[in-house]
Amino acid sequence: MSQDRVEHAAEAIHGAAIRLLRSLRQVDNASGIPGAQLSALSVLVYAGPKTLGALAEAEQVKPPTMSQTVAQLEAQGLVTRRPLDRRSMLIAVTEKGRKLMEAGSRRRLALLTDALEGLPASKLAVLEEAALIMSAAATRKP
Questions:
Q1: Is the pTM of this model over 0.85?
Q2: I want to staple 92 with a disulfide (CB 3.0 to 4.6 A). Which of 49, 82, 105, 141 is the partner?
Q3: Residues 46-83, buried b or exposed e (16+ Cβ, 10 A)?
Q4: Is the pLDDT of residue 34 over 80?
């Protein structure tokens, strides 16, 4: 396959992903918390408890930035911190945080479902296959 074709596909996926995420972010406003907090909360809900350093790494931010985000989530009762050892804390989602994230996920899925409603089965099959390919590409290490 030519490099031009690969680059064209990459550009098309990139543009579509950005537009899709922007539209989904609009329904995230209903959660009442900023995107950075939602993103960190999502990591904790779907990947389990993390240390501050591991959470900062997952979110690609510096530990002081993540410390502030975690403090805000904790103040809202969405996460808890407990000592792991003398130097680190384990951050875990609370039931309130899990419910908030699950409600957000339902809103996002409802928006996507509405957008896909009425597509023929053949196009839905293409999208399902594309989702599998994109997930595999996203987990490939550079």
A1: no
A2: 49
A3: eeebbbbebbbebbebeeeebbebbebbeebebbbbee
A4: yes
